[in-house]
Every structure is written in C-alpha cells, then in structure tokens.
Specification:
globular, 4-stranded antiparallel sheet, alpha+beta
Length: about 325
C-alpha cells in the first residue's frame, strides 16, 4: 500500500498553527466512514507540518464522462458516500471547507464494490492557508452564494452547497455553477438561480425525484434553507426512498499536494489512535483483492486441468476408434 507525505508551510509563530494541530488531533479521534484521515503527522524544525496518508489509486473526476456523468445507480452510491463523510465531520463540529469533485477518490480495482473517499479534510476549512497557496483557483467554482466570490468562513451549509454541485457533476458530467462559464448555457444566462437551471436537466436525464429534491435543498441560494448538516440531508434522502447502497468500509485515500523526501529533525505527534483502524481497513482490502486474485488463478488452473482431461479423453476415444478400425 503506497503512502504519501504532504508538507504544509506552517511557521511556528503562525496564528493558525495551533488550530491546524488541534484539527489533526480531532480528525484522528474518530474513525469517520469515507473520510481519509492522517496516518501520522508532526512538526519540523524548519517551520513545516507534515502529514502522512494513504495514496489513493483512482480519482473520481477522471471517471466522470463529459456531458454524461456516471451511471445513475453508481452515482447515487458515491453521493451517499460523500454525505456520510461530511456527516462524520459535522457530527464532530468540523467543516471540510474545500469540497469539490477533485477531492474524491475511489478504492477498489474497478467500479464493482467501490467506495468513494473525501480527502484533504486536514486543512480544508482553514481559510488562512490560502495565503500559502494551498487553495487553487478551481476551489472558487464551489463557493456558495453567501461568500460572494471570495473565500468565506466554512460552515455546514457551505459544505452542503459544494456537495450539491459535486452531485450534479457526477450525475450530469458538467458544472452548473455560472462562475465556471460566463455563458453558462443558452437558456440560463449568468445570474440565473442554479436550482432553476439544473432541475430540468436532472429530470431529463432520468434522475429520480428523491435525488432531485435532495439537490434542490443542497443548492438553495439561502443557506438557512439548506439542511442543518449532512447527517440530516442523508436521513431525509433515505426516508424519501433512496436505494440503500451502504457497503462495508473497505478503503482509505487522500489527495496530495506534494510527494517529497523529508530531511531534518521531525517531532511526531501522537495521531495514531484513529489511524490504526484505517490502516487495518486498507490492509484488509488489500488482502481481499489478493485472495480474489488467488481464487481466480485457482479457477483458471481448474479449467486448465479439465481441459487437459478432456484432451486425454479425446485421445483415448481416437485410439479406441483406430483399434476398432483395425479389427474391422
């Protein structure tokens, strides 16, 4: 299992440094389904914080077809995983603060039995990190209306608005935020309410009514009209008839900004209580895949053995036919 190291510029006198270290501690105090957490973290003598995480093999945004999206049942499962990750954060009085399509990765060799994982929760909601270049230009396309185009204070409702945009991208294969495209589309000029623009497209794409209702609530322009937290949004969606796609948690992933060789003196913080559970989880996933490969190999060998047996029997039949021919 590959791991990556992320270096976060964080001077010892930075005012937000204690908040970052406290957040790392809190993220590792709970094992949150579908949310990657640091396996290890610490401070260095050159004013950096390092975070060690599992490397995730597949990126969701690579698999969302342009102007088409994912197959609806697969998309529904991934949206559920997204809400479960945010629900775990919100239940612990934490916000992510940087939810977007590029922050989701997938665990499993293919789409069968896959799980989606939300990454970068370690620094996502610390808006002061933008001063150090850790928030890229793509992030602004997921800002809620109340932020008015500039980074604001993350809340449960800002997380949910971004989650609604991600859900639409997964379902339709395109962004519906006017900030991304000045033209927006032919029927909905800039300034059009996003819900007004997107619901007809979702209906035309065959998306079920309960999922459309969920997205209507997540993308409400008034934050007070959005659900109070992701857990409430998920509960309402399920009560409205979402297919229960819950599966065992089988993977851990995280996106990285940099992969570097660390030199110098590092102080390792005690962040391993929650990480141990995730390390065991991903090890079990790896063992499961290995066992599946061994099973397939055994089956292939069995088929090969049967093929050899059939060949031998064909030879015996041929030899018997030849003997009968000689006797005649």
């Amino acid at each position: 299992v590959e791991r990556i190291v992320r270096l976060i510029p964080c001077p010892s006198d930075a005012g937000w440094r204690p908040a970052l270290l406290d957040r790392l501690h809190r993220l590792n105090s709970e094992s949150i389904p579908h949310l990657s957490a640091p396996l290890e973290a610490g401070t260095s003598d050159d004013d950096h914080v390092y975070v060690v995480s599992h490397r995730f093999p597949r990126r969701l945004w690579d698999e969302v077809a342009q102007d088409k999206g994912l197959e609806p049942s697969r998309a529904t499962r991934i949206i559920e995983h997204l809400l479960r990750a945010l629900a775990g954060l919100h239940d612990n009085r934490l916000c992510h603060g940087d939810v977007r399509l590029r922050k989701f990765h997938l665990m499993s060799p293919d789409s069968e039995g896959e799980t989606a994982w939300l990454v970068d929760a370690d620094v996502g909601s610390l808006t002061s990190l933008s001063e150090n270049g850790l928030l890229d230009e793509n992030a602004r396309f997921y800002y809620p209306p109340e932020w008015k185009g500039s980074p604001g204070q993350p809340t449960n409702q800002s997380d949910l608005f971004a989650a609604g945009l991600v859900a639409v991208e997964i379902l339709l294969g395109k962004s519906v935020n006017p900030l991304r495209d000045e033209k927006f589309d032919d029927e909905n000029p800039p300034g059009t309410d996003i819900v007004t623009a997107v619901l007809p497209q979702l209906k035309q794409a065959g998306i079920d009514a309960s999922t459309r209702d969920l997205i209507r609530e997540l993308l409400a322009s008034d934050p007070d009209k959005r659900p109070p937290n992701a857990g409430a949004a998920l509960k309402q969606w399920q009560s409205d008839g979402i297919r229960d796609a819950r599966r065992p948690v089988i993977g851990v992933a995280v996106a990285a900004l940099s992969l570097m060789v660390i030199a110098g003196t590092w102080t390792v913080l005690d962040f391993r209580s929650g990480a141990a559970d995730q390390a065991n989880t991903i090890a079990n996933q790896t063992n499961t895949i290995t066992n599946q490969k061994n099973t397939i190999a055994d089956r292939d060998q069995t088929i090969a053995d049967k093929g050899d047996t059939i060949t031998e029997k064909d030879k015996e039949i041929g030899e018997s036919s030849a003997t009968i021919g000689d006797q005649e």
